[in-house]
Structure formats: C-alpha cells, structure tokens
C-alpha cells in the first residue's frame, strides 16, 4: 500500500524571534531597536503575518495527508521522501535554500509578505494552498522545471544550487587556482581572484545580474528554465604568474567549467548557504555545469 502524501512546510526563524532569542525578552529587544532608530512593532507585525500564514497553510493540508515542518537551519539534516509535497512559506530565497535538498518533489512557494518579497519563487498566497496541494496529485498543476547548477569535486563531493555557486577563498583572501573549459582544447589559465561565480536563469535576478551589469556586456541572461549558465571571475588580478583572459562566459548543458585548486583551502557554496559548503584543498579539481536535476516549482 502506497503512503499518503506528506506536506513538508519549510520556514525560517523570523527576525523578531532572533531578536528575542538574542536579547532575552520583548522589552530588551524593543530597547535595542529603539536605540538604533527602529520600532519593534514593525518587526513583530511581520512575525505575526508569518505565523498566520503558517497556520493557514497547515490547516489547508488534507486530513488524509501526513504533515511535517522543517526550519531552514535544519534542512541539511531533514530527510525528504519521494511522496513529499514541499511547501515553502516565506521569502524567495527560502525556495532556493530548500531546492538543493530535493530530488524532483513538487514545490509550492507561499509568500508571507506580499509587496515586500519580489515573489519570483513564492508565487502564491496562503489562501491558495488548499487547492494547490490537491492539484499536485493530479494533472491540473502546472510546474516550471527550473534549471540548477552543480559542482562535483574529484573526491565525489557534490553541491547543487538553484541560483548560483560561488567558488573561492574563505573570507576576503585571494583565491588561487587554474581555470579552463573542458571543450576549449585544453586551454587553462592560472588565476588569482576574489572567486568564481556560476549562475542560472533563476539567479539572473540576483548576484549574477549585478556582476554582469558591472561588466557592461556579455552573453544575454538565461531564462530560468533554459539549460544555460553564466560564469564570471570576480576581480581577477594580473601578474607575471596569473592571467585575466578567461573571466566570463556561458555554459551549455554539455559544457563544464574546470577549476584546479592552487590554494591551501577553497570552498564552494550555493545560494548563500556558507554553512553547507564543499571544502577543497591544494590540487583538487572541481567541475561545474548544468545539473540534470530540476526544481519542480508550481506556477
């Protein structure tokens, strides 16, 4: 007998909860904010809206379904199952945070703060949850298959991201490595830079877009469902030993960017999740390209 679907509600600790945890009480948190020209009521109201949204979505889960909740900080320890329907209740970035831990499960993005969030990935309101949850079990739900990016190290470590992957040094130190494209006839360049950024069409609304705007030119931004990535080297430094000729480009589904570490320690992390990074040491090689896995996001 097959298991009933499980609705997994993904959320994150609110700013209000973080403030109270840090300062001990509501009053102490209010005093801290007032000393910096802010009113805690604004933060508390966003907290209440999030709570109401979570409660409304939870009550919309069909009675015959199972239900679970997971906070963003616990995503790397949560075991998602094939029959799960993942309901992200929060901001656009929370969808990206959850994406790397999924394997084709349907995802619903619920916006808790319309007007404040762009709503690129959290496309729905809490009141829509009941209909959407049922629709995921039929042919009535339309999904966008969003392209993801992956980095695979030569020791089998693997990292997947929805927006972008950053490869570089911890902190603000210089990253040293050798960079090349696997289909470029073996051309490789030694570089010293602030790191390499590889992004998707979904990420083209964020970090990748800002880097591209700084350059003033380059390939057109990919669409979120397009099997194409853009990559940029940040602040490459020219020297007798390092070059700056390979600093930007695009990757198709069949192309991989290849980076060999020439620093004591570099890291790769995706979508801003530095706490869940792949660590790379001298001489290791990592290949980055389009991931075969997609994020199935309800339209």
UniProtKB/TrEMBL annotation:
Coiled coil: none annotated. Signal peptide: none annotated. This is Inorganic polyphosphate/ATP-NAD kinase. One of its GO terms (molecular function) is NAD+ kinase activity. It comes from the Bacteria. It comes from Streptomyces viridochromogenes Tue57. One of its GO terms (biological process) is NAD+ metabolic process. InterPro entries: ATP-NAD_kinase_N (IPR017438), ATP-NAD_kinase_PpnK-typ_C (IPR017437), NAD/diacylglycerol_kinase_sf (IPR016064).
């Amino acid at each position: 007998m097959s298991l009933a679907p499980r609705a997994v509600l993904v959320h994150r600790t609110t700013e209000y909860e973080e403030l109270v945890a840090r300062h001990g009480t509501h009053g102490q948190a209010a005093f801290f904010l007032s000393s910096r020209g802010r009113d805690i009521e604004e933060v508390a109201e966003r907290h209440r809206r999030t709570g109401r949204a979570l409660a409304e979505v939870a009550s919309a889960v069909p009675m015959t379904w199972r239900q679970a909740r997971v906070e963003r900080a616990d995503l790397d320890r949560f075991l998602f199952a094939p029959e799960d329907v993942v309901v992200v209740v929060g901001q656009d970035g929370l969808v990206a945070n959850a994406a790397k831990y999924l394997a084709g499960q349907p995802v619903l993005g619920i916006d808790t703060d319309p007007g404040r969030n762009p709503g690129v990935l959290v496309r729905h309101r809490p009141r829509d949850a009941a209909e959407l949850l049922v629709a995921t079990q039929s042919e009535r739900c339309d999904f966008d298959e969003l392209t993801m990016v992956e980095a695979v190290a030569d020791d089998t470590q693997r990292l997947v991201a929805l927006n972008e992957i950053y490869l570089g040094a911890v902190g603000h130190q210089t990253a040293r490595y050798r960079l090349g494209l696997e289909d470029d006839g073996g051309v490789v360049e030694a570089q010293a830079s602030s790191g390499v950024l590889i992004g998707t069409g979904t990420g083209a609304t964020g970090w990748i877009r800002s880097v591209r705007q700084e350059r003033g030119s380059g390939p057109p931004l990919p669409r979120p469902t397009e099997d194409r990535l853009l990559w940029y080297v940040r602040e490459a430094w020219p020297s007798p030993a390092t070059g700056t000729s390979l600093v930007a480009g695009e990757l198709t589904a069949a192309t991989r960017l290849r980076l060999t570490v020439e620093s004591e320690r570099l890291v790769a992390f995706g979508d801003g999740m530095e706490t869940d990074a792949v660590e790379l040491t001298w001489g290791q090689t990592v290949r980055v390209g389009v991931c075969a896995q997609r994020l199935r996001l309800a339209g």
